[in-house]
Specification:
alpha/beta, two-stranded antiparallel sheet
């Protein structure tokens, strides 16, 4: 569904022919934020989602932005785009019952001219231009790309009773972040008959379909705002930049 009650009057943005679109997923319920809408909460004077939008607006390898959100926030997204001059915003669409349904809705809105797209969490406002570019450039050669950072802690696999079954080799593990890059046709094809609620990230769907997933370096500061404590950490990281 394409919501059209707001008209944006922004200048046309020139981007390279190889530039890619991004679907920004902002359809969550913020259930762990103690009643606060994390997407619209101000982070050092700018809403979280606005910071996320600006990160992709300012990267020349991004051609177009589609935001997936809840119906009651559609107007707010358009208002943020206007206030913070997000000229690359092309559409705001409604989310689904789970994350990957929301991603699917966003990808379906993209023009047929695109073969691949990035997908990013609206609640990751500290994503750097460097990380965005790493994923975008790698995606030109691959069908699925994720960014991530090496884990610092020892990770143990446990059973349903909480007993340790295995200690995993942390040198072989990464904590996956977004943006992630996907082949649009492949994602939509495999999303048709899969239980989408069972997938916790976008690459997992293509991984389950046998498609190779390329990894690139992420950034420890590229955190996802999930709890009030994450807001405090994000403020610290932003404060280091000023």
């Amino acid at each position: 569904m394409h919501i059209t009650q707001f008209e944006l009057e922004f200048k046309q943005v020139k981007t390279p022919e190889t530039a890619l679109p991004v679907v920004i997923v902002a359809a969550g319920k913020s259930s762990r934020m103690k009643g606060i809408d994390k997407q619209l909460t101000e982070l050092l004077g700018m809403p979280v989602l606005a910071r996320t939008l600006r990160a992709f607006e300012q990267n020349p390898l991004i051609s177009e932005i589609v935001v997936v959100t809840r119906e009651e926030k559609v107007q707010s997204v358009y208002e943020l785009a206007k206030k913070y001059s997000v000229a690359k915003l092309s559409s705001v669409v409604l989310g689904g019952e789970c994350r990957e349904e929301s991603v699917k809705n966003g990808l379906l809105k993209l023009s047929d001219k695109y073969e691949k797209a990035l997908v990013h969490d609206g609640a990751r406002p500290l994503v750097s231009s460097t990380v965005i570019s790493r994923v975008a450039l790698s995606l030109l050669e691959e069908d699925c790309v994720v960014c991530g950072v090496k884990v610092k802690d020892t990770i143990k696999k446990i059973n349903a009773e909480g007993a340790v079954e295995q200690t995993l080799n942390r040198d072989e593990l990464i904590a996956v972040q977004t943006p992630q890059g996907v082949n649009i046709e492949s994602f939509l094809s495999f999303a048709k008959d899969k239980p989408l609620e069972s997938f916790t990230d976008d690459a997992a769907l293509l991984e389950a379909a046998g498609i190779s997933v390329k990894t690139v370096e992420g950034d420890m500061k590229n955190i996802k705002i999930t709890t009030p404590e994450d807001m405090l950490l994000a403020e610290i990281y932003l404060g280091e930049e000023y």
